[in-house]
Amino acid sequence: MTPTTLFILAATCSLAVPVALFLVLWRRDTRRLAADNQAPKPASAMPRRGWRRPKPGWPPRNKPCPRKKELRQRYEGQVQALTEQRTRTEAELAALRASSEAEIASLRAKNAEDRAAEKAEREKLEETFRAQFPALVFMILRIPPLSAAQIRRSLSWETCGLQS
Predict the structure, then answer these.
(1) For position 122, what pLDDT does the model report?
(2) What is the dihedral of CA 95, 99, 100, 105, to 10 degrees?
(3) Contact by Cβ (8 Å): 163, 157
(4) DSSP string, 10-67
(5) Does residue 1 surpass a pLDDT of 80?
(6) CA distances (Å), 90 to each of 84, 85, 94, 97, 104, in order?
């Protein structure tokens, strides 16, 4: 046997011992729990069913306890007050929601009007620039403006060197 084989054998055995010990303890614990679950419970641990004798100072079973009645009335009053408060709060929130929606709608309408006015102004300015552009070109280049007939003649086929 080589030293490597001996080392592997020793490592395997050293791991197998704790695993076997763990499995034995686990099985013993499982058996103990199973035995506890199947053992009959003592009578004192079982819940009692049926009629109990009332304790001294308690009202009889068929009469409601005055303290319980008082507590029930108080809690019903609290529930009613909280329900009314919730209803009022919901009404206030609905009113706020409606006013907010109306305000948002008016702001959207105003925004649309502003955009339409800006677009009209921009188109008017663009049209003004288109009308002024030829005059500016001629003024910058110091060329006398051409008449429509002169422009047609300069764009004819003959002046471009093409025959029609």
Answers:
(1) 95
(2) 140
(3) yes
(4) HHHHHHHHHHHHHHHHHHHHHHHHHHHHHSPPPTTTSPP-S--PPPTTPPPTTSPPHH
(5) no
(6) 10, 9, 6, 10, 21
Secondary structure class of 102 (helix, strand, coil): helix
Q: Report pTM.
A: 0.37
Q: How far apart are CA 49 and CA 70, in angstroms?
A: 29
**Tens digit of each residue's pLDDT (9 = 90 or more) over 48-59:** 565 666 677 766
Burial (0-12, 13-18, 19+ Cβ within 10 Å), 50: exposed
**Mean pLDDT over each residue of the chain, to the nearest integer:** 81
- Side chain identity, residue 60: P
